[in-house]
Each structure stands twice: as structure tokens, then as C-alpha cells.
Amino acid sequence: MSCSTEFLWEKLGLSFGVHNCDGWTSSGGPWVKPEHAMKVVVNSEVIVKGGKAIEIKLPQPPARYNYYNDISVVAYPSLETELIDAQMQPVITASNPEINIELATDNQTTTHADLKAKEWVQYDFGKAHTIRSMSVFINKRKGKLTLLKSDDGINFSVAHEPNEERIGKDECYFSEHFDPITARYFRIVTDLDAGFYEMNLSASHTLGNQLEFTSYRKNKRPIGNPDEASYIKKSDIIDITNQMDANGVLKTTLPKGDWTILRFGFTASGATNEPASPEGTGLEVDKFSKEALKIHYDAFVGKLAKQAKIDAPNALQYAEIDSYEVGPQNWTDDMEKIFQKRFGYDFVPFLPLYAGKYIESNETIESVFWDIKQLVSDLMVTNYFDYFTELCHQDGLISYIEPYGFVGPFNSLDAGRSADIPMGE
Fold first, then answer.
1. Is it true that the peptide bond before 275 is cis, omega within 30 degrees of 0?
2. Containing H/E element for 56?
């Protein structure tokens, strides 16, 4: 907005307001660095033999915008289905030989294998194999997938039709468990064009409603009731974080047997403000951090408010946060410490929940996730919505806030509590 426009509004006795960034969802721009962006938990998994000294470089979990920080490394006795997954080496092919399948199986989410409508990818396990879950992450806001099965690789039938779970403006997940399905061949067919970031078929019964529990979605679905062998005992989980060096090399000794090692960290979610001009597009700011929001506010609203006071001191009166549609955030710096201070127990042994694992019992899972979801909501409400109004007041502005969103990991009533003018559409 030009100085002459502000002056004209002032001259006509009119006032105006601005959204807090280019576009209308939600709070981001090119000045937001990855370390100040929205953050999500990521992980990698390996299985090792115990009973001897181990030295292994752990795979780094997925990273976006070249930003990654470790949280913790934990180990526990491997589940039987995890051993099956590790032993199976399916031959993965595609209906179109030009599709780069490796991009969908490299445990990274910065690139994707592009499939056109009606194309498919196929898993050939070499013999009859039983799966209990599937996960596909795509680069579209909408999609439709069908899982087919076959014993001969020629005649296929429908095995499962997973639900689409949109998590932001331009991405969605298909992540579900189901009753055991046995076949040699499996195909994932897409009805629409889609870029597959990652895909997986697993013998393990993964945690039901994982996306809701980990603040990716609000849809509540059953947690699931797998057999007893699918549960990890909390007492069996060992924190071995201090035995991994800065380069990801783990040196440790574990008891005899097969052990699953999970490396957890966090990266930028990759969400950007939309729909925005190319010049105004950038990463969405960390909504659990007042420091990050202040940087964003000062770079846009604060700068405009400062200039408006010079050019037209009575014209600019409002600043807004529109509806929340920018996907998940479930972590920030030192969040495990924030959790322990508030709830009085260590969250690290429960990090495998973020990898879709069952720990102890369904009652324990529900209880732990209730705590972490409370913390997620409170951090976002206090350090984003409340603090935005505080910053507005410091500049003499009135805050407009639409305190809701279909993927917003927060309590909408709390999000609107400090707004000068809560609003809807």
C-alpha cells in the first residue's frame, strides 16, 4: 500500500485494516526462516542385534528447507511385525516406467514421485504376505486411492479404500490400519494426478487416528484394538539419546535380541502463506513461539503501522488473522522440557506414538495424547492468537481474528478469547 493511498483514506475520514501477511491464511512471509517456522515431529527407524557393542550411523529423519534438529533416540525390543517388515524386500514397480518410485520410498518429503490419474505402483513381495496398514502422503489437497490385491499379478480385486485426510492447503494423507490382508501383489491406484512424497505398506497394526492425535487433523476415529503383541511396554523403552553424537553416529550396547531404534527430531512443516503474491510468499511462522511471531509481525504489520503513523495516523486501525488452514504444528524448541514442567512426567518414552506405535495400553495412549494436545492448543492460543492481539495493542490497532480451522490443533473458543473482534465467514 502506498503512502498516497493511506493519505487519501485519512483525508476522506475513512479507516482501513490489513491482514497480517500477504494472502489470507495464515501468518507467513519470506522473512520467516526455517528455525522460526511451524515445526513437526519426524522420525527414522532401524533394527539392530543386541548383546554386543553397536556402532551405527542412524538415518536422519525427513527434513524440509534443510532444517532439522534432534529430539531424542529411543530403543525397545522389536515387535514381530517390525521384523517382518525389515526382512521383506518387495519389488516395487509402476504402470508408467518413467515414474521414479525411489522418490516415494526414500524417507524424505521434499521430493515426490508423480503419478497421473489411473496410474499405479505395485508391490511384489515374492510370496503371500500379510499387511495391516498403509500410509501414503501426497502433494495435493485432494486425492482418491484404492488398494488392490492379487495372488497371480494378473487378476486384481479391491482390498481397501483409504480415507483422504487433507492436512493443509496443498497436502493430504492416507493413513489407516485395517483387518489383515494377505496376497503376493498389492497395487496402489490413484484416481487423480498426485505426487507421492512417501508410501508404505506394513505388517504392523499402526496406531488408529494417529493424524488426530499428532495434531494433523481434528477428525476423531477409534484408536484400534490390535493384538497384545502390538503393544510396547513403557518399561522396555530405553532413552539412548546421549549415546548418539552430533553426526548421528550411535555407539551403544543393548541386551541380547532384536531392538528397534527410533531417532526423533523436528523440521519445518513446509506450510506457506496462501494465496499470496510470489514476492510475499514464505514459510508460516512458529505459532508456539512469541519470539517467532514478533519477528513476523515486525516485518509486516509493525512496519506498516510505523509508516502509517507518519503518513496517516488515523487511517490504519485494524489487523487480522484469517481462518487457519495451514496444516499441522506439533513441536517447537525444547517442547519436551515444556511438557515435563507442566505435566510432571517425561514425554520422551512416548515419542514412538508419533511413529504410530502402541504403548502400554489404549488408556495410557489416550491419557498421554490428551496432555500433549492440551499443551499444543495452549501454546498456540497463548503465543499466537493472544500475543497477536497484544502486539496490535502496542501499535494502537484493533485485532480481528477468525479463531477456527478444519485442521487447527487448538480450542477455537480459547483462540478467540483475546480478540477485540472475533469473526467468522
1. yes
2. strand 53-57
Handedness of CA 365, 105, 73, 283 (dihedral sign): negative
Q: What is d(CA 323, CA 182) in angstroms, rounded to the nearest whole number?
A: 44
Contacts of 332 (CB under 8 A, 6+ apart): 39, 266, 286, 288, 289, 338, 379
pTM for the whole thing?
A: 0.95
Cα 88 to the chain's mean position, in Å? 27
Give the three-state DSSP class for 294: helix
Dihedral class, residue 248 (left if φ above 0, else alpha if ψ from -120 to 50, else beta): left
* Pairing status of strand 258-268 against strand 69-77: antiparallel
Beta-sheet strand order (sheet of 69-77)? 39-49, 258-268, 69-77, 238-239
Pairing mode, if any, of strands 120-138 and 172-190? antiparallel
Per-residue model confidence as pLDDT tens digits over 115-148: 999 999 999 999 999 999 999 999 999 999 999 9
Return phi, psi of residue 299, to 5°.
Answer: -80, -15
